[in-house]
Design brief:
Bound molecules: ligand GNR, nickel (II) ion
CATH class: Alpha Beta
CATH topology: Peptide Deformylase
Order of helices and strands: HEEEEEEEHH
Number of domains: 1
Length: 170
């Protein structure tokens, strides 16, 4: 098992667009396991491959309290969206920042599972938020892109200050 380090905003590699996975083989299953380990260790409720500098369309999510309901989505596509909800989001790539983001209230996501079988899932609440957040990552988008320019500038400044502080501590 391997713990990956997670890219931090505004790293330009977070802007790369992930390619579809064409063959679900042992290396993809190993990647999914390593991503899950990295997500649980962080700890987070989701992780997109983009965040570990792997630009392939794979996401892991576990929103359960017990951390025992891992979901793996390969080549996920949102094929239905309905309503709207506002949720206070965070991101492992934007540590310490929490902001309200408006997204669809319910989504249908179509994807492949680890056995390469096509699946779909109708999600609402936090799961719907997380699916939209992770699919954004695969498309080179970060949740701060949904915020006002003023908030984006403040977040950049705050993260740059944090980075300077932690560099000084070394
Ligand atoms: O751990 C995470 N928590 C979270 C909370 C609210 C909305 C979205 C998320 S996803 C985030 C993990 C992460 O950065 N995934 O890309
Ligand atoms: Ni994120």
């Amino acid at each position: 098992m391997t713990l990956f380090s997670i890219l931090r905003f505004p790293d330009p590699r977070l802007r790369k667009i992930a390619a579809p996975i064409t063959q679900i083989d042992a290396s993809v299953r190993a990647l999914a396991a390593d991503m899950a380990e990295t997500m649980y260790a962080a700890p987070g409720i989701g992780l997109a491959a983009t965040q570990i500098d792997v630009h392939r369309q794979i996401v892991v999510i576990d929103i359960s309290e017990e951390r025992n309901q891992l979901r793996v989505f390969i080549n996920p596509r949102i094929t239905r969206r309905d309503g709207q909800q506002v949720y206070e989001e965070g991101c492992l790539s934007v540590p310490g920042i929490y902001e309200k983001v408006e997204r669809a209230a319910t989504v249908r996501v179509e994807y492949l599972d680890l056995d390469a079988r096509p699946q779909f899932l109708d999600a609402d609440g936090l799961l719907a938020v997380c699916i939209q957040h992770e699919i954004d990552h695969l498309q080179g988008k970060v949740f701060v892109d949904h915020l006002s320019q003023l908030k984006q500038t403040r977040i950049r400044d705050k993260l740059a200050k944090q980075a300077r502080k932690s560099a000084q501590a070394l």
